[in-house]
Amino acid sequence: MIEIEPARFEAMVAEALDGLPDEFGSLMSNVAVVVEHGADRPGLLGLYQGIPLTRRTTHYAGVLPDRITIYRQAICRICNTEADVVDQVRRTVVHEVGHHFGIGDARLRELGW
Predict the structure, then answer these.
(1) Cα Rg, the chain, nearest whole Å
(2) pLDDT at position 59, please?
(3) Chunked mean pLDDT (size 10), the chain, 113 residues
(4) What DSSP letter does each residue of 23-85 carry, written as one string?
(5) Which end of the chain has fewer CB atoms at under 10 Å, N or C?
(6) Distances (CA, A) of 11 to 34, 37, 102, 103, 113
């Protein structure tokens, strides 16, 4: 387990988002990415809540933004070095963004995410 300061962890999440291919970033719509620094959900590194792009219809309007939550303590708990945290943050961000694009857990695992 390693402890990463909240500001540094948030920077890692921002770097992971900035590292997404431009075409993904430009397609992300109505989604907020937040970091949860306090209590986490056991076994959960990140969580996507919302309506995936693949399920949005012409009736999609006036809804709150989708939410991607990245759990700092959960990620730090399974990592030993800062480099491990950077890698796991990147993997978690990509995984949750995948859900925003409608990709399920099984397919994300097949893809290595």
Answers:
(1) 14
(2) 81
(3) 96 96 82 89 90 83 90 96 98 94 85 73
(4) HHHHH--SEEEEEE-S---TT-SEEEES--GGG--TT--S-PPEEEEEEHHHHHHH-SSHHHH
(5) N
(6) 12, 13, 26, 26, 21
